[in-house]
Amino acid sequence: MTAVERNAQRGPLRAARRVAGVRYAVRDVVVQAEKLRRAGRRTLNLNIGDPNPFGFAPPAHLIEATERAMRDNKNGYAPSEGIPDALAAIERDATRRGIKNICHTWIGSGCSEVIDMALTALADPGENFLVPSPGYPLYTALAAKLGIEARPYYLDESRGWQPDVASMRAACNEHTRAIVVINPNNPTGSVADVASLRAILDLAVEKDLVVFADEIYDRLLFDGCSTTPLGSLNPAASVLSLGGLSKNWLVPGFRIGWGIVSGERERLEPWLEAIRQLGRARLSANHPEQYGIQPCLEGSQEHLVHLMAALTARRDLAMQRLNAIEGISCVTPKGAFYAFASLHDVADDAHWCRELMEATGVVVVPGSGFGQKPGTSHFRIVLLPPLDVIEEACTAIANFARAGARR
Q1: Domains in the chain, please, with CATH?
Q2: How far is C-alpha 189 from the chain's CA centre?
Q3: Which of 65, 131, 134, 339 is 20 to 30 A away from residue 184, measured at CA?
Q4: For the CA atoms of 310, 320, 192, 347, what is the dihedral angle to 10 degrees?
């Protein structure tokens, strides 16, 4: 019997069970969209928060610093935690924004790796952490991979998607290790008020929890809105402040993110050393791109003025069009570049989004992929496409919704 015949008798190779629960709705819808494109269909992509395909470009000083580093042959491994100049710039920026008791800072291959390292170092199987619902699906995917539980707490749509701290408290138990706060929020575009942030930190101190402050969109704010870094509000709290180049400086492909841990250093040291161990094991984050961090944090921010002007026009058009559709309503985003629309008379938003794509080519992500209150349905759109694409997509959504209402 040949090796091929023996393998045929054995059947398919078994995959690891830990991957069975890993889902990532933002990318999962791409599979269906790609099938349409292969069939010759045109799609209108309002699903992935990548600004570059829509013509948004990073500031010149970021590109120049990275090119210079590459020409200077900064192309080998970086220090595990990141290059000193970048780390110092990150900490100076954090201090300017009111985060004083910094214990540890490190740079990862995107915020995703930083979150993965921090969570891997913190929680064991059988333990849990709290995630916002709606919230970014990376956290639930990591929970599935690590064998820990992601327990939802709900954002209140009637209050502009503010965190429901009572829901958060109810979700805690003796196995809870951390709370995730995404501010500005993906997918809703909401910005949490200071009173809610203080209440979250009070709960974290009471329950001895680490707060993951996911603030990757903290400079993308509409209408003069401002955010308050969670790490600046309570020196007794243990906070991991997450940032990066991807969104604010328009280079998601650089895969450069960072984490800043603040709190009581002596208490946090076992966790911090576990993070360092993981960092050493994976060698380093991307090296030459790290030389763009200091120019970004300490150089001109003029690109943000132009970016937010363009995004504001797109947001205003999307809100006008979506809120005019019977059966759909949408809270106006205050930050980031997403909107999370409510479907009033739809029981299964994943099915609705698939049907929308098949009928119109409009690609959006179902709200169930981000979490939502039971009995509700939503979809997320990205506000990055040009005005004419948003106009065409909203017209298609309106026609599809009217046809559904007539059925």
Answers
A1: 21-57+302-406 (3.90.1150.10), 60-298 (3.40.640.10)
A2: 11
A3: 65
A4: -130
